[in-house]
Amino acid sequence: MTETWDDVNEQVKADWKDDTTPFERVYEIVEQTHDGQSAAEIADRALVSEPTARRHCKTLVNTGFAETEQDGQTTLYKRNSDRVLMSRIRELREEVTRPELLDSIQDMKAEIRRYEDRYDVVSPEELAQQLDADETAGWDDLTAWRTTRQNLAVAQAALAYDEASHQLAV
Amino acid sequence: MSDDDRAGEFGPIYLPALQRIRDLWLDLEPLVEETAYDDVVAPTELQISLSDGLGDAESARLDIQWSELGMYSFHYVDSDDINWRFDRHPNAHSPEIHFHPPPEAATTAAEPSCIDVTEVSLVTRAVHAMWRAAYEEDALGRLNSASNPP
Questions:
Q1: pLDDT value of position A3
Q2: Cα A160 from Cα B111, distance rounded (Å)
Q3: A148 with B42: CB under 8 angstroms?
Q4: How far apart are CA A16 and CA B26, in angstroms?
Q5: Is residue B78 exposed (0-12), middle (13-18) or buried (19+ Cβ within 10 Å)?
Q6: Which of A136, A142, A152 to mutate: most B Cβ within 10 Å?
Q7: What SS3 state is found at B111?
Q8: Which residues of chain B are under the pLDDT cut of 70?
Q9: From the candidates A44, A96, A143, A156, which should be mutated to test the interface with B, based on the most B CB atoms within 10 A?
């Protein structure tokens, strides 16, 4: 049966609230927060009250999922990037063999060399400075370069983690 | 992705967002056949395969990107080569949040999107609601329509 609604934006907010607990919504918002935000801002995005957001944020800090920074008197919350990294490393170690990881690392290095050659720059940051906001050429490559640089670093970390884990087990 | 209409920072792909989008589609959509990254080690997008498509199409796929900056692209393409796309990214042709209508989702044919929520769960639910309304009523015109009256 098709759902009916007056405004899809209001409808999905209502659905989200119906399907989740306040804690689950705060958890998701913190997970998607890369620059620190106050409990008030997080409350607004998670559709919860400010005291609720603050209480859940503190819990997430205690479990290591969130981290804080201070802005004067205000505590700002964001996701703990180490946790994101560790869960990604675990995923790679479970799903990918060592030869696959090594192959992929070579491919990603080659891809990055192609960007360096194509644009004659050494980093995505340098490329970003050269790109024109009115033109489309290059912006997709910039995103791909940034993404591949992260994927490469994570794959290399997974490899190193694997070796360390193997050494300790011997 | 064949978007090539971006002009400005999209940001690197954020995998925890793609995981949320995948889990939500699995929850909400019975036609999901398979979900996967385009590459296991070096993912740049999430691909969701559907066992049916709009109109006479027998299957469809959504290619989805979500970045650390909250930019996104939900690109539908089916076995009849119908394309449409809900996007958020800086560009030279239209508002940051916009819709490329079917059948071609051409870069030049962007229009303002009916979606104005920005959180990953909310955008995903909205795109899913649009797809469902168009699928069940067999009407491509439903795709970018904020209201769906009884």
A1: 65
A2: 47
A3: yes
A4: 15
A5: buried
A6: A136
A7: strand
A8: 1-4, 150
A9: A143
Does A15 reach chain B within 8 Å, measured CB to CB?
yes
Residues of A in contact with B41 (CB under 8 A): 92, 96, 100-101, 104-105, 108, 151, 155
Is A134 within 8 Å of B146 when comparing Cβ atoms?
A: no
- Give me the average pLDDT of each 10-residue run along chain A (170 residues): 77 97 98 97 98 98 97 97 94 94 97 96 94 81 95 96 89
Q: Read off the pLDDT of residues B88-118 as tens digits, 9 standing for 90 and up.
A: 999 887 899 999 999 998 887 889 999 999 9
User: Tokens 């076995």 — which residue?
Assistant: B79
The two three-digit tokens of residue A86, written as one number: 């560790």
Of A7, A128, A148, the CB nearest to B42: A148
| Percent of chain B predicted with pLDDT > 70 | 97
Cα B68 from chain centre: 17
Strand duo B83-88 + B72-78: pairing: antiparallel
